[in-house]
Every structure is written in C-alpha cells, then in structure tokens.
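Fold it.
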Amino acid sequence: MKKSLCAMTLMSMMAVTGAANAQSFVYVSNATSGTVTAYTLDKSAKKLAVNGTYPAGEGAMSSVVSADKKTLYVSIRSKPYHVAAFKILEDGKLEKAGDTPLPESMAYLSTDKSGKFLLSASYGGDLFAINRIAADGKVETPPVQVVHTGKRAHAIQVDPSNHYLYVTLLGADQLLQFHFDPQTGKVTPNDPAFVNIEKEAATGPRHFVLAPKLDNQGKQNMYILTEMAGNIKRLSMNTDGTFTPQEDIASISPEDQQSMQRGEARPLTGDDNLPPTYKPRIWQADIHITPDGKFLYSTERTNSTLSSFSIDPTDGHLTYLQSINTEKQPRGFAIDHTGSFLIESGQKSTELSLYSIDKSNGKLTQLGQSPTGQGANWVTFVEQ
C-alpha cells in the first residue's frame, strides 16, 4: 500500500514538473526582413523572449508546424517560390533543413490532420497545391495535385475528420468544397462544388476557422472573415461535408463603422499588391478561436484593431464583445493551446504584442511587447 502511494505521489510530482517545464515556442515570419524570429513564451512569468533570428527568404509569410512538432514550414513568396523547412531543436532554436519548390506564390499553408500532406493556396496564381510530406519531414516534389481555382485562392484547410477540404476565393466570393482522400492526398469536388459567400460582389472571403467543438445541436460551424465587408460569415456543416450559410455578424466596432462612413479611417498603403488608395475601406486579416471554443478573435488592418467575440454553445452564434487598438496594420496572430495567451503581429510595426485572455469573458490584457523583424505577418505556436 505504501509503495503504491509513493508511486502515485511520484507520478503526480512528475506530472506537475512536466507541466512546469513544458516548452512554448513562437515563430514569426517577417516578409520584408526575409527572416523568421524565434521566441520562448514563459507562461509562469508571462513574458516572451527572443530566441534567435533566422534567414528564410524575402517574402517569408505563412507558416505551419509538422504533426510531430519537429519541423516548421514557411512559405517564401519571392521567386523562386518555395517552402523553407526548419528543424525545431529542443531549445526552440531553428536549423535550416531544406527548400522545396512550390508552383506559385503561396499565401497560406496548412497540413492535413495526419500530417502527411502540405496544403498551400495561391492568391496570385489562382490555384492550390498538395505536396506529400516524407517521414523525415521533407516536403516532396512534384505536388500530388495542383488544382486551378477561381480568382484569389486565399486559405486552405481540411475538416476535423480529414475527409473534406475547403478553399476560400477572395476574388470570386466563394468557398470551394472538396472530398479529400487522406491516403492519396488528392481531392475531388463535392456537390455542390462551391458556396457563394455573398450576393453582392467584393466582400472578399479571406481566412476561416472551424470550431474546435460541435455546437449543442451537433453541428460543425465554420467562420469566414470577409476582408472587405466588415463581417464574419457563419456556416454550418451538412452530413455530406458541404456547408450552408447561416448568418453574418458585424466584426468591427460601431465606432469604426461610423468612422468609415464619415471617411475618417486612414488610407491604405498598397500592401498585398493592392494599389494605394485614399478612400477608407475595411481591410480584415486574420481569425482564430480559443481551444475551448468559447471565444473568437479577428484583426482589421485599416484601423489597427483586434476584435473579440463570444460563441454561443447552442448554435455557434457570435456576439461582438469589443475592439482594442493593437500593433500597426495587424496581420497575423495565434493563440496558445491552453487559450490563455494571444500573440499578435503588425506589418507596420517592429514589435509583437503579448496578451492574456480572461477565460471567463474573453477580455484581452496586454502583458508586454517584444521586438521582431520588418513586415511581421504570421505567428505560429509550437508547444511540446
């Protein structure tokens, strides 16, 4: 009995020690600098510390980590277009592992749920590609499949079951729907092959997230951030893997909406190959959900705001909570696996913001800032 109690005590101590020593690494792509900056997040001290800066290539942008958390993949959007692979060392530092050509400049990277395939979408090339990932983490070429789409393919992800794949078309205002074969990595169109996101043109469906949990009606919800319409589209999944639009939720503050209408918002500067304009417009960027499925966050670049929403567990309905000022021209952000911290980058800022998330109400509190490179645009967590 005593031995059993001692063993249980030892296991408990090991579990606590393991949790205390768990590593949280953060990687930020800097497009203008052509680098990736590595950080270590000390959750106990609530501080972010730089852990090195690594050459990647001009236009270093979207990134994703391998299923085994040993490799970081970064899309390089300058010629020759490719994905750069970095080995993640035990201390969180990076070691270049190789480059693999990609068919075009890829705006978004993800992997399938098995981690065997790299998925990439090209905004400029109007296509997406699927490449096999070898056992050693190397991205193989040529691609398993290249699919030409409508205008401005912007984001690509599979569903939790790993049997369906979705692509947003910013230029065509559509969500493409496919069957995904997890053995071959190939896709075939679902029926219907697409969903029209808006009746009016130029809303710009950009990034999207799938809820980490089903709602109380047993439905899988998807949330699509429209780049130019100032809303989030909620859709629910059908049994055949297709989605049905349910509602639009305003995603910028009432004050910003009024400011836009009065023409008071600051002009855009021509990033993302958009021409310079002095006509104020909405310019949303990124969207993420806390792992417990309770809160959703999105960024808007014209007014440099980070907005928060609560998610109704009954049906997935969003309720706007607040918008706060954040890093200038916020592009990408990420949330840690406990849903306690959010890290946000700004393309026109040389610092990152670290926020704590109040799990009772979703409120963000800025804890500090850390230096980063120029053109910071993508944030990826790697937690051991």
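The CA atoms of residues 337 and 355 lie 14 Å apart.
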